[in-house]
Amino acid sequence: xxxxxxxxxxxxxxxxxxxxxxxxxxxxxxxxxxxxxxxxxxxxxxxxxxxxxxxxxxxxxxxxxxxxxxxxxxxxxxxxxxxxxxxxxxxxxxxxxxxxxxxxxxxxxxxxxxxxxxxxxxxxxxxxxxxxxxxxxxxxxxxxxxxxxxxxxxxxxxxxxxxxxxxxxxxxxxxxxxxxxxxxxxxxxxxxxxxxxxxxxxxxxxxxxxxxxxxxxxxxxxxxxxxxxxxxxxxxxxxxxxxxxxxxxxxxxxxxxxxxxxxxxxxxxxxxxxxxxxxxxxxxxxxxxxxxxxxxxxxxxxxxxxxxxxxxxxxxxxxxxxxxxxxxxxxxxxxxxxxxxxxxxxxxxxxxxxxxxxxxxxxxxxxxxxxxxxxxxxxxxxxxxxxxxxxxxxxxxxxxxxxxx
Length: 405
Prior knowledge:
The chain is an alpha/beta fold and 405 residues long.
């Protein structure tokens, strides 16, 4: 019995010591020069969890980023599928199990997930200021330094910046609806050709609707307001429920994935869809999925403009490796490749005027969009992301007050 107890205590002390040593190493990493971090990163395997619902993004990551970081830094980047809820659940489960070296090192996130991870101390940092290529990012830009009304404080690194846009087939819809009053008239005239996706993108559109009901693009600015939300959301659910019989499938079901919305638009069932990255039109037209008559446009009251970010998990086993990968992802080289309109077509998060002259020239001469609307055209309609509680509540209430009603 005493021998078993001694073995248990020794094991417990070893775990505690290892935990203390890991914390000390993590703290030291925040102080080390970049050259030393790069040395530590060499030869590591970095696990990256990200949304994998876009073929062009997957192509960029698998066929450009993965081989390039292997060649440049001898880092094996392994990518797994997962977004907001899956990331949060993974972190919570590992914390409850006291897992010190987690399955995942870095994640692709934005406001709602950033908020939830911060609440459970799931992110490691601040680390962004240590990245050499961070000097090319304008951290005075409120669409970069603030994520869903939350100061980023260098706890996550901006990766792309984009704006939400409405998308329509201009042959089938000569004059698309630009406000709720026009949308109601539209769905009654063209029943079955519009719906709301039960995902991040659909909920983002509902935030634009909420702001319109608040009578202005800044109607949701500031901390979450319970009283305001109850008033506005009641009006929103009343609007949707009084019109959903004219939605796709008579409002009896709602697509759960943006890929399903894309397919429905491609086959002509839906005449209006929507999305980030200014609607994601370019690659879908170039690939032949969308017709060349596809166009993007702004919602009259405004649409969300935001950045998306890369974070490092608190229990990541390869923090140095993750920092090296993230620094590469915000490098002029990787950002230029990502911005190509004939590729991933993602707006760079870098301030191009801060770049060396040769890189400025490369960005200016890169392939531009032929079909999709630009962020410059949408800029006058840009809205800041509201507090994360709005998104969380919309998800829950859309399910209970619309889908299950």
